[in-house]
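STRUCTURE REQUEST FORM
Protein name: PadR family transcriptional regulator
Source organism: Streptomyces yangpuensis
Requested output: C-alpha cells
Priority: standard
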Amino acid sequence: MTSSHMSKKQDLPPTAWAVLGLLSFPGERTGYELKKWADSSLRFFYWSPAISQIYAELRRLEELGYASSARSGPEEARAKRRYAITAAGREALSGWAADTTEAGPPVLKHGLLLRVWLGHLAEPARLRAMVGEHLERTRQELAAVRDAAQEAAGVPEWAFPALALRWSERQHLAELELGEALLADLAELSPQGGTAGRQAGGDAPTPG
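Status: completed
Returned output:
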C-alpha cells in the first residue's frame, strides 16, 4: 500500500469503516440494501448513516480500492449497482478492527433528559407524559432488536453481530428500568415542582 493510501486510510471517518464493515459479510449489496441492513442492525448500538452518506462513502471506498462495484445485467428490469469488499479493503478493515487505540467513551445525547433538566420550565404532567412516550418508543425498539437478533441467530457468519444485538437488548431493558425510575422520581416532586423554579434564583446546583 502506498504512503498516500496509508494517509487516506488514517483519515477515514467511522462512517466509512461502518459501510466497509457491512460489505465484509458474504454477498454483494446495493446501497439501498446496505441502508436497510444498517437500519436493522447498526442503529441499535451505534447509528445508521443516511443513504446519501452511504453512497458518498461507497465512492470513497472505491477510490481507495477498498470496494468494487458492478452494474446488474439486462436480466434485471431495473439496473442496480452492487458493491463488494476487495482484498485490500478486507485487509484495511481487519487492521482497523484490531487497532488497540482507545475507541473513546460512549457518547450519550438523551433528548428526554435534556428536557427533564429544564423541568423547572415545564408542567409536571407534561414531563411525566414525555417519559411515558419515551418508554413506549423504547419498548417498540426493544421488539425490533429482538426481531433482528432472532434473524441473526444460528447464522455462523452473523455470530458477532448477534452478540452486539444481544448487548443492545440488555441496553434497552436497562433504559426501560431507568425510565420507570425517572417516573418514580418525578412523582416524588411536589405538584408545583415543575414550575416553582421559574421564579427561583440562586446559584446553579453544581459543586465548586
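Reviewer notes: The chain has a mean pLDDT of 87. The longest strand covers residues 67-71.
Form closed.
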